[in-house]
Write the structure tokens for this entry.
Amino acid sequence: MTYFPASLFVETERWQRRPPTGTELATVLGRYFEADIYVPELARLSGRSSTAIDWHLRQESVVPATVLAAALLFRRSGAAGPPASGRN
């Protein structure tokens, strides 16, 4: 069974009104998942390399639309998997 914390949905809903910066996106996803889970998935879903995703997640600028779309797909899909241990 795929686990989706309700708070993840609440935090990411506002992204459709105001896109997050890379560091905001990394902070929110990092609350629920390990980076070694979400970085490759964002890369796969966006068609970018893991290196490019990692770079965008360290920036204070708004993430590209393809990365934001990948994050929203990641949130909605079964790709998210179980929560990181000790987080929620």
About this structure: The chain has one domain: 19-80. DSSP finds five helices and no strands in the chain.
